[in-house]
Input
Amino acid sequence: MIIDSTKENIKKAAEEIIAGGIVAFPTENVYGLGADGLNPTAVAKIFEAKQRPTFNPLILHIASRDQLKELVSIENDKVYNLINAFWPGPLTIVLPKKDIVPDIVTAGNTTVAVRMPQHPIAKALIEACGRPIAAPSANQFGFLSPTTAAHVEKQLSNKVNIILDGGKSDVGVESTIVEVTNDGVFLLRHGGISLEQLKDVCDFVEVRDTNIDKPNAPGQLFQHYAPSIPLKFISEINEAEIKGRRLGGLFLKENNSEIEFEQVEFLSKAGDMREAATNLFSHLHNLENNNLDLILVEPIEEKGLGIAIMDRLVKATNRYK
Ligand code: TXA
Ligand code: MG
Output
């Protein structure tokens, strides 16, 4: 059930988490499905609700730097440069874990992913719990990420009793994930902090291949973020594929095609990439709700946040290849 994020309801949600339950809550990136990150049985409920493979590890959400020190060892000053620049905010950092972190959170890895969200409701919830919250995006594994409480309800209404409403997530794509080792800073997932922003803070950032079929590092799946109806790049379709079909179109700022669409959505009429990222999943949710046969999407220029947007679109279209 969707409930307003009043003080009382945040307390109620925290009690549910402390008691070993799961709760959906807003972050500035996407909505998360949270459980007590130090309680393996509670964390198992997340995997079950999402039907997520357990080899795919979770992010721990924290509200203070003291919490970070309980969870990870920090051997490298670059970590502080990143934290000072981007926390609280859309950056997740993968670091060597301490024993207190359960294996189910890290899928047996010796590292754990940690982030400090900026969203006031996420922050209040973590503080009220007094422990880290393990949370993936609050959607069925492999499908569209939620950027409103209603999106969560659409996919998980029978799996989660409490959905805290925090309006629309304003970043709209997931956090950027970096792993910091003594060899450098490695980008594992493009997201709300762009590569350029990272490079302003760290002199060396290496991008790992984030679009592979059988990832050796998790979080790099080939197919992901897909709407429940087929999605294809407009540049890759032929006439036979679209003939007589109910089509949706997703464009950045204008539709220059001659194709006839039932429904067209624009990510940002001003061509602003921040606005485009905010709207990406919500427009795909709108299109997926409307009984179309196929959604055609225009490729986005891979610059700044455009890299994170294209990463999601490529993975979503891969499902329908
Ligand atoms: O914006 C976000 O980060 C959202 C909100 C809810 O915080 N969360 C999110 O979680 O996107 P999820 O589970 O959908 O994605 C987490 C990614 C996964 O792809 C996982 O493989 C990667 O983080 N990951 C987690 N722990 C890792 C580790 N130790 N090493 C490498 N990748 C890791
Ligand atoms: Mg996800």
Notes: The chain has two domains: 2-207, 231-318.
